Model the fold of this input.
Amino acid sequence: MKPKPSIEDLIGLGHTKLGFFKEVQVKMGELRQSNRELRRERQHVQAILDGITDIVAVIAPDYRIRSVNHSFFDLYATQSPEGGLCYAVFRGREEPCEVCPLREALAANQVCSQNAIFDVEGRNRHFAITASPLRNADGLPTDILVVKRDVTLEKEFQAKYYHAEKMATIGLLAAGVAHEINNPLTSIQGFAEGLQRRMGTLADQLNDKTLRNDFEEYLDIIRKECQRCSGIVQSLLTFSPRKTAEMSRIRLNPLIRNVMRLLHHKLKSYPDEVIRMDLAPVLPAIQGNAAELEQVILNLVLNALDAVGPKGRIIIHTHQPNSGGAVLVVEDDGCGIPPDDLPKLFEPFFTTKPVGKGIGIGLSTCYHIIQAHGGEIIVDSSPEKGSRFTVRLPADKETARS
Done:
């Protein structure tokens, strides 16, 4: 029995090859069109990712970065991170993080979130991190899509709002306490002064000089302590709702020089040139209350003196920022402030000084005064490295218009 004829037998081998090549050409054309469509889709997806202001990264289960969007380079001054380890690129670590949303997302095969604070280019930033698994056809995670949103500014404004709200509440409480204390305090001081005036006659009648000296000393102590308490009460009233202090057009540099004259005698117990002044030759006028601003400068300088050791140094610096107004910086190389204490630094009655060295209303008074002037006070500090207090005050309205 003869075999069935093949297609080659019927139409010839040459025609068969020709048809095969035509089919291949058609398939190649279809593949090229498919590749072009895939490339356009990839470019479209990348454009969407690059349009997102958050950092978006695709990371493999072995922590290696597959790709990132353009927002990565806005925050990190580095070369292309593809192939690098995420914990090395993002956090500068040599091993995976203890709490890792990527690892949790892989293990649970679901979206995981985390808030974290870490150093970026020398500045602490707050991030909201979301890790989402990218699954294959079987529903198993192959890669992780990590989105990192920089919420530093939001957190700073939120903290300022909470602090302002807290200070307003404390102000109402302080006003009530201050007025309640002020009344008996005035009576004690008045009766002490009355006794002082009559003490001479009484002691002469008793003919006892020792008794007279003792009573004069006791009454003098009572009067001085009453005056000290009265000063504390006045500081408490700074937090209370009050009428706006009388403002005038003033210059910051003369206020600083006046405070330094007041501190002349105190500075005699410190090394020469413990305070160095670097004042801008020209500063715009500001609207402010001279007495209150001198109180702020005095508090900041006295705190700096308490912080520096025998060989410490303090720099008082002023300059004009690009936004206008005036800036005062009081910087020292003293003991610094622990990070845990920084958020509480401007709260009334909080102090880092030893018992008996301070009552904790100096910086809170400064904060309230600067807020009333429409400015802000910022502190940067590191333990054993020193502190820097920056006071920003807006320009006088006439100066700002000119």
